[in-house]
Amino acid sequence: MSTVPASPYPYPLPAKDSGNRMALVIIDMQRDFVEPGGFGAALGNKVERLQKIVPTVAGLLRTFRELRLPVIHTREGHRPDLSDCPPAKKRRGDSTLRIGDPGPMGRILVLGEPGNEIVPELRPEAGELVIDKPGKGAFYATGLDEHLKADGITHLIFTGVTTEVCVQTSMREANDRGYECLLVEDGTESYFPDFKQATVRMIQSQGGIIGWITTADRLTDALRNTYG
Known about the structure:
By secondary structure, the chain is α/β, with parallel strands linked by helices. It is built from 9 helices and 10 strands.
């Protein structure tokens, strides 16, 4: 069995002839969270921390495309009438900008607005699944689980932002549904370094209670050796 060097122990890759497949999941690398002037910045966060993982995620994206492995992108956003945005979510916090309000890149966290689009370096290509999600997790109120099962995907590689919120939530949802989950530590980031560190420890605790942790280089080498 081919594996990826990982913590707390090697992550098993699905064999080519097993009928199982793996996919790269890129969580919420959208302008509202990553670029200056978006929702993340409006909340007082240092978006530069998130920007630094773009080259790493872009490298993984190229590898998955070259090896013809599935790629899934997610975007957190709401319908223009905000009918899928709970009032409690809209009024949470004390920011001057709230979900649906006009911002520098259009209405904040609204589908179809410029700020809701994925950053250009990671823009989805034709054939790659894009999941628009109204919540933190990629499985809530979306058809992601059905898509994965229909495509025979059993192993999920997680990247994106933020580590402790949307990435961790999606990974926990996937784990509960029986997917083998691997987090790329240098392919995810938080506005708060200690939050990321705590999340990484939690995921791999208790023998990998949520999943495994690895680095982009280790994953890339293993993928090329197995599927190249």
